[in-house]
Design goal:
636 residues, 32% strand, globular, alpha+beta, eight-stranded parallel β-barrel, disordered N terminus, 15% helix
Length: 636
Amino acid sequence: MRFPRSRIGILALTASIGLLPLLSPLGGQVAAADTLAGTDAPDLGWIIEEHGTQDAVSALRELDPALATAFFDSPGTQVLSMTSPPTSAVPTGWSAEAAHHYTSYGPCTPDLRGCSSLSTDLASGALRADQMPVAMYDDENWRRTPEPEKAGVCSAMSDFTRLAHENGLRTIMAPDQNLASPGIITTYQGGESQNWQTYLRLGLGTCAAASGTDQYHIMSQPFQTPWCGGQGGACEGSEADFTNFVTQAALQAQAIKPDVRMTSGLSTNPRYNVTPQAMYQNTLNARRFVDGIWLNVAGNPSNPGTAVQYLELLSGLVPHYLGANGNLTSTFPEATTPAVASLAEQGGGMTFMTSDVVAGGTVIPAGTYKFEPWTDGSSGSATLGLEVGYCRPPSCVDRTPIISPESWRMNVPAHDQGVVGNYTTENPTVLPSDGPYRVYVTVHVQEPGAFNLLYNADRASTNLALPRNSADPARARSSVVFPGRGARLAARQPNAQAPATFGLDRRGGTATFTTDPVLRAGDVIPEGAWQFQYWTDGTDGSATVNLQAGYCTGACTDRHPVIDSGAGWQATVSAGARGAATPGGAFTTTSPTPLPSTGGPYRLYWTVTVDAPAGFDLLYDSASTATNVATPLLIH
């Protein structure tokens, strides 16, 4: 499956540490879609696993078969197996493609536990393109990949792609971000503190595209949410890190191979402190640049329920979680010990309502409501009647049901971890104009059972998924900004063909670019990584530039630096480099910057000043020369 892209013209790109030679000119493309919601969501392509240890397809089909089929029974889905010999894991009747997971191009030695070799399977005849058309190369810093292939990842990807293509296979290159860990290929440089920054400097996405692969996968899941316990116990990840990494890796790969299909990774692994909402927002942000998602339902426990709620968000539903004090909230619960509500008394009931209000005139569209109860106990069942509607705050005594408990009855067994009950409305609900209103759900015990409903915990998150209302549009956010003509700094990928130029031939030459007012009084610019990625012309030489970023008001004459000119954000810029992210181009701040609580609105500014000149130009404001700055601050 291919996805709409707007045409651009991108010239050759040089790997930033010499991993690749200069390549011949190529045309290029960039994804056009800025948002994703409702019926647009199934147009995403997917990679999903089914191989005995991570049976994501089976788990999701068990929890919500209709949802799993709607998303994954498609030619745009690749069902990834890890069997020996290679065997298709595509469910009977599905139109998805069979793909096989390899960790090595060359033969596996006995000490490589879990290693799987493309060359060995092809030589033995175990792998045939008519049965398994897609081969993935997952080169990582782990025992499954031979050391020479880790150290020579670029040549290994080229060898893998060549051999697979010679045998009629299509390929996915998936070099893991942990290959950029210090000591594998290089060490952190120029303010780098996380693997994704070093990955960009090494040009691993560039190497993947240059291998000629049909598809490039960006291993972005370790950066999808803030978590601790990375290499050396490090804390890493954020929405900004995820977006920065995916955006820049995608731009670098497309500069080399404009028609390469691209996916990015998301995982339900509990170690990443993940929530369905974070996965959803990351998908919106990445969708501008990638064609699909590898949904990795992994970990112990693997949390397929989190994946279901993520897919609900993509399909236009918004999960609301039963919380403390009768609250109904769209924030994923963080508590580890669940609250309990007895289902043992017939006629018993409990009501939960949103603290956030919805304006009058808001439309709740017709569609499917989903209730996912979690329970304890060892045997038996209860029948619940579910009432959903709206009411006027603050007391919510006068309630108007959208669904009555007589209409929506659900049998709930004891010790069930995530059964799903559905109810579909046929008409939209328009809230009266004299709002605001709260949304509520009441659980009525119609036939009791000797066990409890569990809620308000990250492992027992009883929830109600509602159709997304008209006041809650899905919105993509970006943390990568592009300098443009008129000293503008914007989150949108430029589409001009002819680049603007900034001369690097004069010491002290400077240019400042500013956003429209996007920051409010009291906003906080978080600590984190800033990354400079550049395009240049010329044939020889290098220049040094000092970089500065901060905030300002009005015409931006009064500037407040977050990173000032003496802070050490200094990049060496080479002539002829296309999409490079070099040593010095990364800078990490260690403290947040709160904006003044009065005044504003504020602009974000970025300044480049020539320190050591050279006779060529920095190129920007063109689809083919997308010089950009990745920031920790999300720009709407």
